[in-house]
Amino acid sequence: MLIKVGMADLKATKAPNNLMTSGLGSCIGICLYDAVAKVGGLAHIMLPHSAHARSSENKAKFADTAIPVLLDDMIRLGAVKSRLVAKIAGGAQMFSFPGASDVMRIGERNAEAVVLKLRQENIPLLAKETGGNYGRTIELDTTNGKLLIRTIDRGEKVL
Amino acid sequence: MDFLSLSPMQMDALREVGNVGAGNAATALSQMVQKAIDMKVPALGVVPFDQVADRMGGPESLVAGVYLRVEGKAPANLLFVLPIESAKALVDMLMGLPAGTTEEIGEIQESALKEVGNILAGTYLNALSMFTQITFEQSVPALAMDMAAAIISVVLATIAEVGDHALLLSTEFVGESEAIEGSLFLIPEEGSLELILGSLGLA
Lengths: 159, 203
Hints:
CATH superfamily of chain B: CheC-like
Pfam families (chain B): CheC (PF04509)
InterPro entries (chain B): CheC (IPR007597), CheC-like_sf (IPR028976), CheZ_family_phosphatases (IPR050992)
Keywords (chain B): Chemotaxis, Hydrolase
Radius of gyration of chain A: 15 Å
Number of domains of chain B: 1
Protein name (chain B): Chemotaxis protein CheC
Number of domains of chain A: 1
Structural class of chain A: alpha+beta
Organism (chain A): Heliobacterium chlorum
Oligomer: heterodimer
């Protein structure tokens, strides 16, 4: 079964279910995987930090709060934290304005926040495909941990 | 104020403002392409982030989006979205070329589409200013051609800190004889909505 993860959403599952999220722009798809338990998790975050947010009920929206929730969900399915590895994609700058403000650099800031949070959690980042100015649809194969990345006119890639 | 707590009267008022703004924008677009452009009745929706791209043909549909930031007292986002085929057809009309001529969107075609976004935004915001006496400053337009969800994600990121829904005031434009369609979306930030409603006497 292919499980869809929406924007500001996260899901964990076991093989043979795959996880996918479509149309990542400035958002980041964070994929965590335990190769022994064959447990995968995918979070589609929109913003780097929950600290300034007035509404933080939805933890899947922020890099710093989504990763701990995703970890818990995966551990509940049998994953072991020390075995987890990460792959991430997204964080594009879809629009370029002259003298781009911070608002427009949101993709880059998202990527930085995700990398930092993974480091804090001691989860090795095996591969990343972030930045650029194009959208990405990703699918995590929970049988082998491979991450398929599809784009409109830059073809496909497997991390 | 939360988008979800809008009263029917407030929603009617916003739709009416959107109606006049989009009417002006449709007229401006007609003049640019020298063809009749019809406008559908504006739709106002409070939409969960995850469903916004569905209003643009689905998360992975290939669209052109012209994006303008609206700055000033009442910050907002304006996004003009067209299916890629419509964008090509629109370029043909703008440049006075026979339908079907434009196959690729290069630099010149991008400029033409950005200019359309610029003029739509200007006329739309003028109407909004007249109603509200609020000054809106529009940024220069930026253009992206990609998956609808990827394009809208940037816009939604500007309002995501305060909630999980976007207020979308949208109007669909349709060419009377030509096969073009496109939608203009006004996506205000939360505080702006309060200001706009306040200036209409409906806060």
